[in-house]
Amino acid sequence: MRLTISHITEYRYDQPAQFSLQRLRLTPLTGVGQTVLDWKLSVEGASPEVEYDDQFGNRITLVSLDGQQDATRIVASGEVETQDLNGVLGQHTAFSPLWLFLRDSPRTRAGKLTKDLLRGISGDNDLGKMHALMAAIHETVEYKPGTSDTETTAEQALERKSGVCQDHAHVFIAGARALRIPARYVSGYLMMDGKNEQAATHAWAEAHIPGLGWVGFDPANDVCPDARYVRIATGLCYRDAAPVSGMRIGTPGETLMVKVTVASQEQTQSQSQ
């Protein structure tokens, strides 16, 4: 499947910003299941400093703002050809060792509620257990925007029984690691059925299964990623894979606008006719 993607992020500051430094994780890479045919990343109101690959293999673009700016506009767009591999990506190849993905982060630390959830998980092998975990999270944590934020932990999402895709991913990662199965967070894009325009990127998780390697699980939709998904970045949790992160000085407040469009080539052609 050939997907056309447009991702616009715009920050408008209450007062002119004096300085900011931002890491952009907005460049998908060619790899198992996806081939980047064309991709552009442009920034207005900030200057590119350096581009590099981090310890997780994510492509990072570092940009800085130095001076008086009222807004920063970031546009990532391009075409990616994808395959449906039933979520199976194969063996671990990144710089970070596999055991690192057993380590807790503040957002993915398993507590009482995670352990309670795991008591109902069964399966003949690790793959079966991960499918059961995905289904249990989908059933337990309702997709409900506005009930969480980027600092929400897996335990808090389970307590509230609601959240968004990043919360589903964090709960899955917490559960997998509690079962001693390496797991990581994934940020990317999803072509939704009957809806091209979206208000945010998507997030899911991957677990490392003996004999298969990394396998994707999307508890928010209770499916393994298929040709509708494009991977951008991975890490221990949201912090390592956030599309935009960084720091700023001299700005008391900001307004954020995000617009994401993901469509197949067939949809794009039919809309232009």
From TrEMBL:
Q: Where is the Transglutaminase-like domain?
A: 157-221
SUPFAM superfamilies documented for this protein: Cysteine proteinases
- InterPro entries for this protein: Bac_transglu_N, Papain-like_cys_pep_sf, Transglutaminase-like
Signal peptide residues on this chain, from the entry's feature table: none
Q: Which Pfam families match?
A: Bact_transglu_N, Transglut_core
Protein's recorded name: Transglutaminase family protein
The protein's organism comes out as Rhizobium lusitanum
